[in-house]
Amino acid sequence: MTDAKYPDTIALTFDPNNQWLSCVYNDHSLYVWDVKDPKKVGKVYSALYHSLCVWSIEVYPEVKDSNQSCLPPNSFITCSSDNTIRLWNTESSNIHGAALHRNILSNDLMKIIYIDGNTQALLDTEYNTGGGADKVDVQAQDTKMGIRTVCVSPTGEHLASGDRIGTLRIYELKSLKEMLKVEAHDSEILCLEYSKPETETIEH
């Protein structure tokens, strides 16, 4: 891909016994490479983490009818200033019967929702891509991006999110499609809570 962008490597360490090279990148991802054979480098382990602060963690509720559950047991959802919502699962075994499958690059990560396709905040702005010692002015780059809070509906079917500029979004968890987007407030949404199931409305 000619328009592909890749993160910069910010730290390296080498394991001489296993011939493994561990790399940390400025999108906060971690990769461990097997470099025994330089002509056939293979990935041993990788993980994708939030690149900025995590504002909220929401545990997926237990659904009475497991067939109606959109996420497997022991799943949780996080949101961050990096403008993403991430769905995680702590089970060590493979996920069976779920619409979402594990991310090939991160074993405990099922899915990433990129809000409005904006990936500007995914790279750590404290690191200068030119290799200089000067840090980028983070405050100057702060454009109030990021998701401040998330909440899962009691039925486990929908996910609500509120961002730092007051936009409320509702997602269908099975497909992760955005169902609703409302400019609800003039400033950041700090909390979301679903009302009782019989009312089928959202309080924010």
* Count of discrete alpha- or pi-helical segments spanning 4 or more residues: 1
Main sheet characteristics = 4 strands, antiparallel
Shape: globular
Percent helix, as a range, is under 10%
Strand content: 35-45%
The count of strands amounts to 14
- Determine the structural class based on helices, strands and strand pairing: mainly beta
Mean pLDDT: 81
In N-to-C order, the SSE pattern is: EEEEEEEEHEEEEEE
Q: What is the straight-line distance between the termini?
A: 41 Å
Radius of gyration over all CA atoms, rounded: 19 Å
Strand order of the largest sheet: 1-2-3-4
Question: How would you concisely characterize the structure shown here?
Answer:
The protein has 204 residues and is mainly β. It contains 1 helix and 14 strands.
Could you explain the architecture of this structure?
- This protein has one helix spanning 138-141, and strands at residues 9-15, 20-25, 30-34, 42-47, 54-59, 75-80, 84-89, 109-114, 147-152, 158-163, 167-172, 177-183, 193-194, 202-203.
- It starts with 8 loop residues before the first strand and ends with a strand.
- The protein is an all-beta fold and 204 residues long.
- The protein has one helix and 14 strands, in the order ββββββββαββββββ.
- The mean pLDDT is 81.
- β6 and β7 form a beta hairpin.
- The protein is globular and about 60 Å long.
- Strands 1-2-3-4 form a four-stranded antiparallel beta sheet, with no helix packed on it. A four-stranded antiparallel beta sheet has the order 5-6-7-8, with no helix packed on it.
- 2% of the residues lie in helices and 38% in strands.
